[in-house]
Amino acid sequence: MALDEATTAFLTGMAQAAGPDAKPLWELTAAEARIASSGLKDLYGSGPDVHNAEDHTLTGYDGGNFKVRVLVPNDKPNAVLVYMHGGGWVLDDIEGYETLGRQLATKSGAVIVLVNYRKAPEHPFPTPVEDAWTALKWTGENVERFAGARVPLFVGGDSAGGNLAAVTAIRARDNAGPELAGQVLLYPSTDSDFSRASYLEPENQSFLTTEFMQWFWNLYLPEPALRIQPEASPLRTGSLAGLAPALVVTAEHDILRDEGEAYAARLEESGVNVEHHRWPGQMHAFFSMVNVLPASADVMNLVANSIRTRATDTARVAG
To answer: Which pLDDT value is given to residue 19?
Structure first.
């Protein structure tokens, strides 16, 4: 199956707007690539109103600071989701994910905590992992403050954010908490192996190419030999048993498809409750294209319904 019409039109429009002389992002510096890609957020709109929105500054493991944005949908949220955004550990921020966060909060009924973890190359591995972990622990300590009750806690993210979500879910298991009701992994980066079939298929070289992913890894963790450690490549974790239930979404035409599906398979083999969907006709990053690609809305509803259902089930068991 080819990319769907909406995606093809989007890519054509992006190429026309950039012009024939535009360099690919992986030939730019990180600073240049951030500027070149910053206009995407203007396409997403402002998002729905929420009951409350506030920013908090957290102190990282090294004494540095980073911000989280807490979006409370109503006066009685049913869950809290700590969300790590995508961008290859280098690009994007919570400003670019504001609309996504607001939509997800209102559709799911959950408090959404957007994490503005610090980025490579200024803050390479393990800083993004440590910031994600700090944010998850902090949120776990403040669930009642934001939700008004001890509601279920989830962790999630897309792409590089899915990598961070997977790693923090493993840390939560290994550190006896925070207790997670589930993890939401959207086309996650789970390994550093560029030889998988999905990396080699020409039809997958669209929004995220093999060269672009190599560029991201070179900035995030420059030494290839160190990329196989589990907190960089969670697919290589010794045991995935005992992890929180997972919703995993992959895209048909995505270079990260195979590693995301391999992770879902390993979770299931380890006895973890897994719901996996390969979204047809889609490229990498489609979920973050809110109000642009129709498939984004479809997966938004899937994620929101999954959170609602699992939150209800978790509350019923706890009660």
So the answer is: 87
56 among known catalytic residues: no
Which one from 189, 198, 284, 288 is the annotated catalytic residue?
284
Active-site annotation holder among 108, 159, 192, 233: 159
Give this prediction's pTM. Answer: 0.97
Any catalytic annotation for residue 85?
Answer: no
Indicate the fold that domain 5-11+31-318 takes in CATH. Answer: Rossmann fold (3.40.50)
Of 92, 131, 191, 254, which one is the catalytic site residue?
A: 254
Q: Where are the alpha helices (DSSP H) in the chain?
A: 5-18, 30-37, 98-108, 127-141, 143-147, 160-174, 197-200, 210-220, 257-269, 294-318
Orientation of helix 98-108 relative to helix 294-318, angle to 10°: 50
> 117 is written with which tokens?
């973890």
Rg (CA), the chain: 18
| DSSP helix/strand/coil, 185 | strand
- Residue 174 designated active-site: no
**Exposed, middle or buried by CB within 10 Å (0-12, 13-18, 19+), for 246?**
buried
> How is the chain split into domains, by residue range?
5-11+31-318
Q: Please tell me the predicted confidence (pLDDT) of residue 17.
A: 87
**CA neighbours closer than 13 Å in the CB half-sphere of residue 72:** 18
**Could you report the average pLDDT of every consecutive run of 10 residues in the chain (319 residues)?**
92 90 94 94 94 98 98 98 98 97 98 98 98 98 97 98 98 96 98 97 96 98 98 98 98 98 98 98 98 98 97 75
Q: What's the pLDDT score for residue 189?
A: 98
